[in-house]
Amino acid sequence: MASLILKTSISSNSSTPITSLNPKAPTFSNVYFSKLTPKPFYLSTSSTGTSTSFTKTRVLAYRPEYIPNRIPDPNYVRIFDTTLRDGEQSPGATMTSKEKLDIACQLAKLGVDIIEAGFPAASKDDLEAVKMIAKEVGNAVDEDGYVPVICGLARCNEKDIRAAWESVRFARRPRVHTFIATSEIHMKYKLGKTREEVIKIATGMVRFARSLGCDDVEFSPEDAGRSDREFLYQILGEVIKAGATTLNIPDTVGYTVPSEFGQLIADIRSNTPGIENVIISTHCQNDLGLSTANTIAGACAGARQVEVTVNGIGERAGNASLEEVVMTLKCRGEQVGGLYTGINTRHIVMASKMVAEYSGLHVQPHKAIVGANAFAHESGIHQDGMLKHKGTYEIISPEDIGLYRSNEAGIVLGKLSGRHALKTELLKLGYDLKGKDLDDVFWRFKEVAEQKKLILFLGVEQHLTDADLIALMSDEIFQPQVIWSLGDLQVTCGTLGLSTATVKLIDANEEEHIACSVGTGPVDSAYKAIDLIVKEPVKLLEYSMNAVTEGIDAIATTRVLIRGENSQTSTNALTGETVHRTFSGTGAGMDIVVSSVRAYINALNKMLGFRNQSGSKVYSRNSRVSA
């Protein structure tokens, strides 16, 4: 259990236990509650002669009782995750309902307080996905009584708010989040409305949401960072009267700097009538790279809810990153007034990997906390310091976020390795696989290990690396429901004639389909053969390939982005524009053409699965990581 040391000690000159401390948390050893404070803490002792010193260590996973408009502990910060709503608005990040449910389950394991599951009015598919999350994740109460709030976004109109309430009302703790622009540029050019009209719409829609039976209503003045302060105080005061329980202050275009945004929150606290009856929230975009800094500044100034996304994905340059904000509060909590969250940080790595794979938006290597290089040390000076003491160059232990260092037991994964060794290595990378999931990856691992065994470099057998395992996980586990799968592939290419490809695909009913085509190269001809079988006209928007390791035997990973000619559409929450959904797919293999074909098939499966999720039944032959 992660903890934050409190500068509090108790001294006793006898060996008699302290009777004013009562154990209240049997699931954690040495965890107590004081009669003077409800906050739980670890109790450690040190003795010198007859004197015993007791040191309290507060448990970060403590979560105050959930009350929509107030938090019993003034130092507790609610984590509002909008990965499934704002994050999915990133180009190519479209996810199926099953993928959204998997991520929602992982967010619940993380312990986020609120999950913004989507924008239900965007499409029927979005509404059904939010409803499914509300029913399943929104009612999964754990042994400590925790269950996340399930939230739906809505513009300030009755149609949107009805859709949001219809989708989230099945949750144990439902919330409707409604918004309208308040900056002069937005009101003039986007809304074409006066200040008085905007206030009337905002208060009317908050009242409407409450009239539907929703007791937890969040209101956001869009583009608050560029809004007139006096007008902002006025409209916020009016929506509080109308029944809002949380006021979210968004820096919609990432325009403010930390000192400016912190002052904005402080001014709202000082000048908004009735502010003591609501929770202040922040939502910071990353257009200038300041989203995390602005979010922390807002929390220091009094905001007690922060809106974030896993890996910082979202519109344009993205949002404040959940892992960055949470680990900042955990690592430097004493510098920000003792603020803390209820996040179980050991699930961060798995959440990051899941979001990256399902969204198709891979994490940059130097990304803070979850990037591949975040805990890598190449400089000789740094390596020397790390060998002497890890604290010389690491302020966070990788184990705290669920990342384990390479083993020191001399285990090398190869053709003869068994399930136990593979499971152990995957666990160190943040993947906890069981049952069929482990079997699927194991047999794929054995296949690749056999291929690597045939490739010798200076007479030395090549073994699978961590990067190889991650690529296999991506290709075998984090994939959409199987509608089409690759059976066999044969290509002929070179300078002597046209490239040709013969492809065998297997459908959901186990029937085989074979097609042959020519093209400008092996990948082009293979894709055209697939199109002849699937008969779904699509446009290839992006194609990229990378080797995951060094050497001629490296596994290649491919990512493609496609859009169907008869593609599904949705409504952008902020602009109201109709957008055509795009779908990403990834594939991995030691053969670059096979890797490319797998990526294309996975993108097609995601597109077809998304289309079928609200209609005909889709049969799935592959499994998922248990969330």
Helix and strand composition category: alpha/beta
State the helicity in percent bands: 25-40%
Q: Main sheet?
A: 8 strands, parallel, barrel
Mean pLDDT reading? 82
Distance between the termini: 20 Å
Radius of gyration: 26 Å
- Strand order, main sheet: write it out: 6-7-8-9-10-11-12-13
Task: Work out the helix count.
Answer: 16
**Poorly predicted parts:** 1-60, 454-461, 614-627
Using the alpha-carbon principal axes, give the shape: globular
Our estimate of the beta-strand percent is: 15-25%
Give the beta-strand count: 23
Would you write up a description of this structure?
By secondary structure, the chain is an alpha/beta fold. Helices cover 33% and strands 23% of the residues. The protein is built from 16 helices and 23 strands. The protein has helices spanning 97-110, 124-136, 158-168, 184-191, 195-211, 229-242, 258-271, 291-300, 322-331, 348-359, 380-388, 419-428, 435-453, 466-476, 522-534, 592-612; strands at residues 3-12, 21-23, 31-34, 40-48, 51-59, 78-81, 114-118, 149-155, 174-181, 217-222, 246-251, 279-284, 305-308, 456-457, 460-461, 484-492, 499-507, 512-519, 538-547, 556-564, 569-571, 578-580, 583-589. It has an eight-stranded parallel beta barrel with strand order 6-7-8-9-10-11-12-13, surrounded by nine helices. Strand 3 and strand 4 form a beta hairpin. Helix 1 runs parallel beside helix 2. The longest helix is centred in the last third of the chain and has 21 residues, at 592-612. It is globular, with a radius of gyration of 26 Å. The two termini are 20 Å apart.
